[in-house]
Design goal:
The structure holds 2 protein chains of 2 kinds. By secondary structure, chain A is mostly beta strands. Helices cover 0% and strands 50% of the residues of chain A. In chain A, strands 2, 4, 5, 6, 9, 10 and 11 form a 7-stranded mixed sheet that branches. In chain A, strand 7 (68-73) and strand 8 form a beta hairpin. By secondary structure, chain B is mainly beta. The N and C termini of chain B lie far apart (36 Å). In chain B, strands 2, 6, 7, 8, 11, 12 and 13 form a 7-stranded mixed sheet that branches. Chain B has a 4-stranded antiparallel sheet with strand order 1-3-10-9, with no helix packed on it. Chain B has a two-stranded antiparallel ribbon with strand order 4-5. In chain B, 0% of the residues lie in helices and 51% in strands. Chain B has strands at residues 4-7, 10-13, 19-25, 30-31, 36-37, 39-44, 51-55, 59-60, 68-73, 76-81, 90-96, 103-104, 108-112. Classes of the chains: A mainly beta, B mainly beta. The A-B interface holds A 4, 37, 44-47, 59, 61-62, 95, 97, 100, 105-115 and B 38, 40, 42, 48-52, 55, 61, 93, 95, 97-107.
Amino acid sequence: EVQLLESGGGLVQPGGSLRLSCVASGFTFSSYAMSWVRQAPGKGLGWVSSLSGSGGNTYYADSVKGRFTISRDNFKSTLYLQMNSLRAEDTAIYYCAKDRDSTGYDNWYDLWGQGTLVTVSS
Amino acid sequence: DIVLTQSPDSLAVSLGERATINCKSSQSVFRISNTNNYLAWYQRKPGQPLKLLIYWASTRESGVPDRFSGSGSGSDFTLTISSLQAEDVAVYYCQQYYNTPPTFGQGTKLEIK
């Protein structure tokens, strides 16, 4: 079955860290760029980061640059998002999404996960 | 960043009737080099992941019913459901991928009247 399954969300204090994972199945993972998109409570969808299929090119939203790191393990068909120096405004459901090609930019997303909730609060 | 504004925020349509959702971009998402509009549409049903419906503004994703259609060019786009079915109750989003960061509309909630 073609699907994406996120995990790793939870409650973390401001300034803390969290690592999200997204396991892919049903397609050739290394052939596609992957992205993280989030949705804060009561807010719209916001792109966070993208990573090319090879893992060589990364792209970040200004709001997370320097704090978040996207990576992938193509052997494990897994995408990661390491989130450091977390802030209250990072509270959101984080979705993993499959890009339509391998580049990581100028893309729509043709497969989405169910999301994992990250709550940043003391 | 390109801002996408959807209208209306919510919509109630009778079964079998036409539903129309609009998406206006703060700048053109049409690329002259390949004559493509860099706009996609998604559907989110309750409890389900987002589903791609349309890309390149008017190309239907494989498996999407043909009652869904996309139109428009430049900075004004429309998603039309020609004959609303009960299973179409969802929130619909547009997204531009013309440049980075990709951005999304705020969503339109579609209900049955």
